[in-house]
Amino acid sequence: MGILMQKIIQRLLPKSIKKELITYGKEKAFAGNNVSCPCCNKNYITFLPAGVKKRPNAICPGCHSFERHRLLWMYLTNKTNLFKDKIKVLHVAPEPLFFKKFKSYSNIDYVPCAKFGEGYEDAYPTGTIDIDITDIKLEDNTFDVILCSHVLEHIPDDIKAMSELRRVLKESGWAILQVPLDTSREHTYEDFSIISPEDREKAFGQRDHVRLYGKDYAERLEKAGFKVKKDKYVDTFTENEIFKYGFIKEDIYFCTKK
């Protein structure tokens, strides 16, 4: 099935079916072999639209992974030692999908954390600990791996948060620090006079974002003391594979200590 046919199917889906599918996980209605989710290893006729501005081919009917989750899971599996060595992992703002998976691996000493601010009290799985990543109350060189995806755009002092993450990362460790990024912008856009949720959504793409990162994102990470490798992992897949797995076309920001 091509992309055009998939879009036609998505337009024809009744809203009631979409809502029921997302709420109750009734993925059997979309059984097929056109797309394949690497997170749950299941095949479907299509991934579903998702997002403030609806993106086609976005959410998995089974495990509810998004495009960035599927790309990251494939990267972690094929390009890192996450599932091979004995390692201690700090996972910032853990996605329920990954939380469940990481907890199941005996080699991973797993520390999921988030800042329990207003509106986020019930956002994270039970067992997540309360940590402000701009002021991490843990010793230097504690973690072998740090995972932080789509968090820094919410934090006013992102450089402080990056510096703290670097501090608690071991000298031999690595971190993957992903953000939504506008590749048409040379420089990150932030304006702290913009405070209303409506204005922030208009300026930064989401009501609780405080900036829109540009091509200088790696420079900001380097300013905090990281050595950054922009891994164009998604480019190793064909267009058909990118469609099949529902990947987002973004670089993986693989960071180590300088």
Automatic annotation (TrEMBL):
This is Class I SAM-dependent methyltransferase. Residues 129-176 form the Methyltransferase type domain. Pfam families: Methyltransf_11 (PF08241). Keywords: Methyltransferase, Transferase. GO terms for molecular function: S-adenosylmethionine-dependent methyltransferase activity. The keyword Ribosomal protein does not apply. InterPro entries: Methyltransf_11, SAM-dependent_MTases_sf. SUPFAM superfamilies: S-adenosyl-L-methionine-dependent methyltransferases. One of its GO terms (biological process) is methylation.
